[in-house]
Write a structure and sequence with these properties.
A hairpin with a 2-residue loop joins strand 1 and strand 2 (about 45-50). The protein has helices at about 1-20, 25-35, 60-65, 70-85, and strands at about 40, 45-50, 50-55, 90, 95-100, 110-115. It has one domain (about 1-115): 2-Layer Sandwich (hypothetical protein PF0899 fold), CATH 3.30.2320. With about 130 residues, the protein is of the alpha/beta class. Helix 2 (about 25-35) packs across helix 4. It is globular and about 45 Å long. The strands form two sheets. The chain has a three-stranded mixed beta sheet with strand order 1-2-4. The chain has a three-stranded mixed beta sheet with strand order 5-3-6. This is DUF3662 domain-containing protein. InterPro entries: FhaA_N (IPR022128), FhaA_N_sf (IPR042287). Pfam families: FhaA_N.
Amino acid sequence: MRWERVVEECESALLAKVFRTDPVQLLDALREECDEHAIVCSQSRVLVPNDYTVELAKGVHDELAARGGQVGWHLTDVLARHAAERGYEWAGPLTVHVTVGEVPNGRYRISSAALAHIPAGAAGPRGM
């Protein structure tokens, strides 16, 4: 458990440098998107979306691209750990796509979908 905290703190520090805001907000929003769309199938099975899109304001996205960031991979790791802690089951292979979008808060917007039986890269480029 301690190792996971160290990794998450490193990821948060990286995101803080990039986003210039509290990255915990983005990570919490991603976890919340997962939780809000969880479907209880039985006592032992809770199904959650497996395809997430994080739309970033153009300036934030451009800054990440210039740094060669792998934010999509970090967000996927955070989400995978969250689901494991909650005992969630994915609808298919987990993917997190980072894209540019017109976002209302000027920072990010998160959406999700359940896409069953697809290869991890089939829904589009993984993005940063």
